[in-house]
Design goal:
mainly alpha; 116 residues; 4 helices; single chain; 84% helix
Amino acid sequence: MKHYINQQTLGQAALSVAGVIIYIGLVSLVLFNGDRLFGSIQAGAWGPFLFLLLFVLSAAVMGLLLLGRPAYLFLNGNKQEAVTLLVTTVVGLFMVTTLAFIVVAVNSAASGIMRR
C-alpha cells in the first residue's frame, strides 16, 4: 500500500522548516552582533546564564516548531498523518542543512582560491 504526501502536509512541513530557518537566523544575528547590541559582558555569571537561557528557549521553540503539529495530530488520532508530517519536516530540514553546508564549502573553497 503506497502512501502519498498531500499538498497540505508539504505546506505544513515547509512552514515548519521556514520557521526553523527564520528563528535560527535571528538567533545567529543576535549572537554575531551581541557586543554591539548588549556591550561587552564582563566575566561573571551573566555570560553563561544568558547563553543557557537562550539555549533552553531555543530548545522549546524548536520543539514547538518541529513537534507541535505532529503531536497534536497524533493525540487526535491521526497517527499516520502525524508521522508523515514529522518525517517530511525532518527531511526538509535535512535538505536545507545539506544545502547550507554545500554553500559554505563552495564559498570557503572559492575564497581559498582567491587568496592564492
